[in-house]
Amino acid sequence: MMTYKELKQNEEIKTYIVRADESLEALGYTEHSFAHVCRVADTVRYLLATMGYSEHEVELGQIAAYLHDIGNLVNRIDHSQSGAMMAFRLLEKLDFAPADIATVITSIGNHDEGTGVPVSALAAALILGDKSDVRRSRVRNHDVSTFDIHDRVNFSVTRSTLEINPDRTELLLSLTIDTQYGTVMDYFEIFLDRMILCRKAAERLSLQFKLQINGQPIL
What we know:
This protein has 9 helices and 4 strands; from the N terminus they run ααααααααββαββ. The protein is of the alpha+beta class. It has one domain (4-217): Hypothetical protein af1432 (Orthogonal Bundle).
């Protein structure tokens, strides 16, 4: 099987990631290019490796993370499903085993709130990696006076960490928010569904999800 590191060198896939992000930029969305997908892949590795999953499963999880947003090339709506179908074709061309393709596209097809369900450990890890990537550097709009709520919330987050406790019973998402740009209520207005999905995803990994903002426990 091609490794995650090897897959990252594939020029065809790089093109799809770049072009998908260009579509989102045209729609006014935050960054969804290499910085995002690679950060999600790193988080997926951390979660799965820490919880004792095999290196093979970790690799598949990272591959799913790298490919998870290519469906935005087709349309933002239902991008998880279109992305899963694109990943199916790409991985089939690269001679991945059917079982590995199934694992990856199941994760991609279930990563987004609204339709996503943590049906597997890898799907759960992808959900958590994706939804925890909230940070100032994802905001493309540099005119604070024209920020919408998504810009305000992402720009307000100056630090974000996702950490499993030593007993491997809890998963803490800790955010530092600059309230000059966004409030805790702003965060929940757009991220409540995502946090509910994160709770379900953490449970799939046998973890209790906790959220802390500016040092205060929220969930």
